[in-house]
Amino acid sequence: MKSVWAFDIGASNGRLILNSFDGEKMYTKEIYRFTNLAVSVTNNYYWDVLNIFTQMKTAIRTSVQQGHKVESMGIDTWGVDFGLLASNGELLANPYSYRNPKNKMGMERALQNITSESLFQKTGVETAPINTLFQLFTMKTEHPHLLEMADQLLLMPNLLAYFFCGEKNNEFTISTTTQLLDPQSTDWDSSILDFLQIDRKILAPIAQPITIAGETLPVINDELQIDPIKVINVPGHDTACALAALPLKDHHSIFMSCGTWVIIGIPVEKPVTEEQAMTWGFTNEGTMEGTYRLQKNMMGMWLLQQCRIVWEREGIATDYEEENRLFEQAQPFYSYINPDDERFFNPLNMVEAIQDYCRDTNQKIPETRGQIIRCILESLAFHYFLVIKRLETLTGIKLKRIHMAGGATRNEHLCQLIANATTLDVLAGPVESSSIGNAIGQWIALGEMKNLQEAREVVERSFPIQHYQPTDSAGWETAYQQFLKVIE
């Protein structure tokens, strides 16, 4: 049985998953997990990328010590963020985090030179301050010396791959998150770069997914005591990996990648760039097959994660079992929030931010942990329903089922709430969808699987899928209308 290493690195943690394939089924084993948090220094948020790299090497050592031999490795991460390399190949600085507060100012300045409408028409990507485009413009204003010294820009998965194999490219799916890619040519859009006076030469060339980038460098092999390993350009964006792992049946299926963020969408052949899609905040990003997915990037478990941090600071320990108990004890439909309101993006105290929102919208204020947990989960479910209805409007497709994947599928209450709110069947799993899609990209590149269709059949044989059907429909429509009034 052959194996590969799938590094799946998110905006809160990273992990190394060993994925093995016997010709019929895939098997996964978590080898190593580590925390990955943005670091606040001098009013900026950075990623400690050298620590990420160190943790990845520790993960490889752990796997080697357990006797694992692999054919290849692949890396997927969150989108938009990047590192800059000098002409001698050295990293110039720690990469900034998309949560850096200065990005909003950079976006406002950039939009004095080019309109949101024009950007959406050109790229199919929602205009948002987190985008690579506006991070670059912010850097051009705040830290011009970095761009002057930069020889190459590598997006996060490709930066980490470069540390291992020395090859410089930017994989297609992660590149579609930047708002700098021309979907027609599948290359960097020179007109946008010219508008903003950003030198195109720093952007490393686009590489298609499911290609071999190179092999691990001799210095890596010596340090880790391994033979050369193929480094494969899997879909670099974790959402593209997650979508690849979902056994979608037909075009009536919705996908949801659920973690810190939740991304809801459907596959499309080419970007949907009509005005209504832009107004509703949809975006178009790449897939493993080289096509696109029309999707909405939304708040996910970040809200609850940040509440846990507040409670821990207050000395109130919590776990999933207790959260479930508190949720069940709390009154349904007590209060709601708009999960995508700006005040929830990165507040100092998420609990107070939720309470302030309810106060400002003349609602009952959730005081207990159970009330806050239920407020978050019910608001998320209703917000996802709103987006699904808008997807139907944009595409003319009557959607019948939801395929959920990612860590948030472990929250059974959330899955059931989504089924109830949308009145659609929810198929939850596989949980580790991003790492499975990462491995699928490697197996196809290695010739062990023919194509994505065959890979999805393997997924169905290999991993359990939890089925949630709508129940307890009483009061949901009335509650949804109340939610809409609050967020409007």
Automatic annotation (TrEMBL):
Ranges for domain Carbohydrate kinase FGGY C-terminal: 256-445
Cellular component aspect of the GO annotation: cytosol
Keyword Kinase recorded: yes
EC number: 2.7.1.5
Alphabetical list of Gene3D superfamilies matching this protein: 3.30.420.40
Keyword presence, Transferase: yes
Keywords of the record: ATP-binding, Disulfide bond, Kinase, Nucleotide-binding, Rhamnose metabolism, Transferase
Domain of life per record: Bacteria
Positions of the Carbohydrate kinase FGGY N-terminal domain: 6-243
A Pfam family this chain is assigned to: FGGY_N
Gene Ontology terms, MF aspect: ATP binding; glycerol kinase activity; rhamnulokinase activity
BP GO terms, sorted: glycerol metabolic process; rhamnose catabolic process
Family named by the database record: Belongs to the FGGY kinase family.
Name by which UniProt lists this protein: Rhamnulokinase
Native species: Gracilibacillus halotolerans
